[in-house]
Amino acid sequence: MDARLSRVITTSARLLRLLGLLQQRQLWSGSDLAERLEITERTVRRDIERLRTLGYPVHAATGTGGGYRLGAGAALPPLLLDDEEAVAVAIGLRAEALGTIAGLGEASLRALTKLERVLPARLRHVVTTVHSATVPLTAAASTVDPELLLTIAAACRDSELLRFDYRTRDGADSNRRVEPHRLVNTGNRWYLVARDVERADWRTFRVDRISAVLATGRRVTLVDPPDAAAFVAAGVSSAPYRYQARVLLEVDLTTAAQLVPPTVGSLAAVEGGTVLSTGGDSLDGLALHLAFLGCDFEVLDPPELRARLDDLARRLATPATQVAAAGWASKS
Fold first, then answer.
1. pTM score
2. C-alpha neighbours within 13 Å on the C-beta side of residue 316
3. DSSP string covering 150-199
């Protein structure tokens, strides 16, 4: 290999390393880059100019706290990932292929195909091992239009009044004007937390029931917005259901949070334990869920749930031979 070609290869490799460093953190001083690359600060400046010539927007600031940072450009630069980052991205793309945003599943598979094509064999083996050993347990999920989701997200970011058509749980159609606050993803559904202007109250909207969304361009000021995650958790875990239950769990709040997912109910620390507020359309379903929590509890309300649990406890305490005999007797 002649000397000129060797220099070109060395410079190209160094530029890739420099680009990788610029992607790792927001700001680098020239001296730090020179030390990491084992070159002079003058060579760092030349390499920065080379990256700019190639179209990468590397910004420089002088003075105290100054340095180099990689800005957003018109084209996506090649991402240089370390081993852990590459594995995390590959596993995340596999999971997103089963996601709830319409069209992103196919896009995720395309991106995963490109990534796996260039993964070293040792990393490809790790990703394949995790994928082959994992079985997704997914509930039926409604997908949402990514453009609609982006419009709502931008309105949340810019505090911009939204108009949209909405189909309620019972199938009624309505037109809403809302002051958007946050989007919340529960794993299989997306929710918008917003203040409904006509109803003068904070509401939760399922994004897959939203259509004909329009950003009005009118800015709004949110007054006392709720904690979006807690607000959605309270709404989806109790409000829509026939039975509303309050249960004292005889464990502390930290332990209760490990036992009860946020989509199942809301938790509040009290003297002697944690109060779970939840709901369900079936007393049996609520009773069985509580029975399998794995901690002692006391039903505060409703009384029907206490009665159903007492009945189930009596049945479970009855020896199996007596249950079988009662069954045969009823048939004879």
1. 0.58
2. 9
3. HHHHHHHHHTEEEEEEEE-TTS-EEEEEEEEEEEEE-SS-EEEEEEETTT
What is the chain's pLDDT, residue by residue, as a tens digit (332 residues)?
556 656 656 777 888 889 888 888 888 999 999 999 999 999 999 999 998 888 888 999 877 768 999 887 756 667 777 788 888 888 887 777 666 677 677 677 777 777 777 788 888 888 878 777 776 655 555 678 888 888 999 899 999 999 999 998 888 999 999 999 999 887 678 899 999 999 999 999 999 999 999 999 999 999 999 998 888 887 776 666 788 889 999 999 999 988 888 777 788 899 989 999 888 888 888 888 888 888 999 999 899 999 999 888 888 777 655 545 555 455 54
Q: Which residue has the tokens 């969304």?
A: 213
CA distance 184 to 106: 23
All domains of the chain, ordered by start, with CATH? 13-70 (1.10.10.10), 83-132 (no CATH), 146-227 (2.30.30), 238-317 (3.30.70)
Structure tokens at 18: 């420099």
Extract the tokens encoding 37.
């690359």
Confirm if 181 and 195 have CB atoms less than 8 A apart. yes
Comparing CA positions, the residue from 217, 263, 258 lying closest to residue 236 is 263
- Residue 241 DSSP code: S
Lookup: tokens for 274: 């944690």
Residue 314 to residue 125: CA distance in whole angstroms: 53
Sheet with 273-280: strands ordered across: 265-270, 273-280, 243-249, 297-301
